[in-house]
């Protein structure tokens, strides 16, 4: 058994794998939300989909401010006082929210966004981030009971063997930052507090039951009880439930419950940061965060905080995200953080479901309902198809034939939403509807406002039912015209008792699990764990147990595994800054002989094998090899250090195992929602393929990589694989005593040339009329095809001469847009104010040269202006003008007085630098705007005295 590598047979890979943040201002960004999501028409996959994307928005006029001094020092306290005095001296109206002095030195405040650049320029300020708030749909679940067969996941991960050794997480503290924990649950100890010996011994409620982030205020108290949400209780049960029904990974850990999600399921970054600091002060050894925020950077506030926590020797575990249907580069925060163990989801091997039988068939058929309840129809029913063919996906998207009346109708998923299909069946008089998947695996329909029972079945079961119906159609003599009785039907019997079913995709990477890598080509995710179809605890008043899916469920599995490793040997991490648990245990992989391996960008090191991680006296460093980007066949070298911490000599053998390469783009360099996977192998050579290592010593082996030779040079491919390290006892290749695996990943092609702004021809960026507070304002609309480290939106004169930045338009570390609701386009309103910069003709891309001195917004006089958008390309250098995509808007007329005269002639727009597609070998060419106003004789030159603009003073206190 190789310790940590989830991989799939060819069939599973093809089925399962063909599948924002801003630092200032008010641009929309992806939020923090639970990573167990449901959606109405989710991507097909091997397990029921997690819950839907949350509603998200930036909480305007609210910021986290990080100061420069180290936390918990006299200097930090002096800086915080000085910062507050500076705000008062500027006569700014502001409100204090939270103070931080454990992990970072800083505070969160409310302040009008127009003045964020003022505080950013203060000498004690290191970073400023806007706050994001998220709300999500309330979960609808029904209780379920289980038996010990659901512990099959522990058999696959080696947890069962760890339990047999007596390891249970005793004396290890695990903090759960989530929706609280129902500590009344017998499996979680039944009580709360340190004095009573309760398992949930630490905790705090930061929000209360009613908090929604805007209409109601947070109500804090010392009781983190979860009775209305359930997410945190489910997460806690995976880590350490212990009763006759369910045994978690580490059933004797001590919990800290830090409630940041209310019954409404909302949270802001500053609340999460406060919870992290409290968990650290409470002495947690491990902190689990089953949450995320779309495509993100390691420089987001929560990612930075998580990284700082790991430097104190505390293990941070987070979910990678549930955006597997959005293509590459979707690693979320805090999982993207340096040192954070980012967790992918692997489908569970068994699940519990209700089923039905078909008269005349020996096969058993199971179905899945979101509420885990049996179909509320007659136990004996009649199943019919919507038509006399193979049930194409468009059936059910319109009116159905009258023959479905009084029957259960079978429909294939696709073309329209689950709700549309179920409603059309209901209108036709059906008494129930079964929707079968149009791709491999189970589907889990979520519908709204439908009265008849509905359920989802797997593609395989659906196809078997269609074949049975077709065989009966072909075997009967049909009247003409067809009548209701002419349509074939199946007599079915619904069972009212749930039972265990084998998951056909057990062990495969869950389709919903997000793709890496990070935008800077960080190798993420780090490791995988069971996350699809996981049974765990739930609030007692909501049924006590429930099965959920998501990387939210995989993350606590890894947290529990880390607890077992820490209990076994505290020297394996607890106080080491680089996370020794990850490198000596969680960084290895479980070897299975099936080929091909799923991409490292989908599974990291793969499915964890806990018993191997615990048992190892041998480990390799680093735990991952990041090969970055290459446009040539030049060799790339990395050094692997192999340690022998055992008691005898060992012989180590090294070999290479390739994983599937991935192309995530169309020919026009648009991101595919389902990346294409093919077997393209890197060439790998070792300085030696075998080495003897004495006890207490180590050996260095140089590994040389060359990108796959058969990849088209004009395409961008992500190639990956594993360096396998087999450890044998003695000098003569004796008994195999350990097998390690180190994942690697790299990019073939010019990743730097990928477009950040949507290419011309798609109508973006754009200027749209908008209304705010009854005052008409234009909206600047921008869509980012990839994440960017620098995004600035400035105002210029018609000829391109810089006036200054639009308030809220200077942003750093911005995540990419996708096609999900509320994240297709970013909009920034502009009311005609600017933060003045040097009045000069502006060389393309040189936005880093804008004045850094604090300045108040000024209102432009009536006239004609342009908006200029500039974004830094991937791996670009901020000071290099050639590393930016840019766009100039058409002319915008500001006419507050109503006296602006129309232009006498058409004024050409300065040239933007966003090509239709990137070059395969170089960055986009830069075309500078005109260098003088004389190029536009019909437009008057810029005024010589910009300070004459109407000044907007700060609000009085």
Automatic annotation (TrEMBL):
Residues 626-744 form the C5a peptidase/Subtilisin-like protease SBT2-like Fn3-like domain. One of its GO terms (biological process) is proteolysis. The active site is at 178 (charge relay system), 231 (charge relay system), 552 (charge relay system). Belongs to the peptidase S8 family. One of its GO terms (molecular function) is serine-type endopeptidase activity. This is Peptidase S8/S53 domain-containing protein. Residues 907-937 have a biased composition (Low complexity). Residues 907-957 are annotated as: Disordered. Pfam families: fn3_5, PA, Peptidase_S8. Residues 1-24 form the signal peptide. One of its GO terms (cellular component) is extracellular space. The keyword tRNA processing does not apply. Residues 938-957 have a biased composition (Pro residues). It comes from Thamnocephalis sphaerospora. CDD domains: Peptidases_S8_5.
